[in-house]
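#struct-help
A.M.: can someone run this one for me? Single chain, 327 residues.
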Amino acid sequence: MQTALRLVAVLALAALLAVPLFPQIVYPVFVMQTLCFMLFACAFNLLLGHTGILSFGHAAFLGSGAYITGYCAKFLALPAELSILAGTLTGAALGAVFGALAIRRSGIYLAMITLAMSQLVYFFYLQAPFTGAEDGMQQIPRGTLFGLLDLHNDVTLYYVVFATIAGGLWVVWRTVNSPFGAVLRAIREHEPRAISLGYPVARYKVVVFTLSAGLSGLAGSMKAIIFQLAALNDVHWHTSGDVVLMTLLGGMNTVFGPAAGALLVSALTRYLDPFGAWVTVVIGVVFMACVLVFREGIVGKLQHVLRRRPREKRQAVDREGMVRTSE
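D.P.: on it. Structure tokens below:
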């Protein structure tokens, strides 16, 4: 199974690196947007899939990262790296506040608290004088990264976005495959037992909330640089719903399954756009089909199949050996 997954990962990496070479086939801006949503979904899954916390307010972190990055780049004239860092830190700070307040409750009550706080953030950006309200913050300058890389060049921008998102995904992978990630899964499986073992569960929840929000803010910051725009859609509750959909489609019990869900939703939204409102209907049908057929999500189902085949081969070999022995 590991060999097959590594082969798929290598092919996907090679395809992503080759995107700027074939702009007539694959639109690089669409790929960059999809990469941002991949990081957003995987960051969200640190809460839902690995800690068992459902947040309905994650759009607040994505949108805040976009708006703060835009504000720093446009009105404060900060360089790109400092603007992106400011957006990421703002998302992390909001996550710490959301987490500290929301974890006082659990289940649907926690989800409703995150939704309520997200709506407060939404109305702040709707009314704030620097955001442009319904028109959004437009003409955000891309600038240069570290004074060396001109982000106005689309090829340079693509590889900067690719490297940044890859770094964010590595942080997700490293978090999941660490002792910290093991404690998060213990909290998800049986929180009272984790408390009885002496783990400060509340502190772990706030930390993972902060980390998830910071990575979401990074995704929003990169999205603002790509489109030179920060819009209310980034902080709307619909976006919080979309990331839940992406996670469930890809597989919430996997590390990078939500990235596959983000790719599927982004592709359907883009290529079915001529059908107008029917896009929502098609995505809904796809979601129902995946829930009925792939309960573990697309990537989760694939991993299950890859694990089952070697097991079936070993069982067949064992049965054959038992038959020969009996003969």
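A.M.: thanks! The radius of gyration is 21 Å.
D.P.: also worth noting: The beta strands are 137-138, 144-145, 149-150, 229-230.
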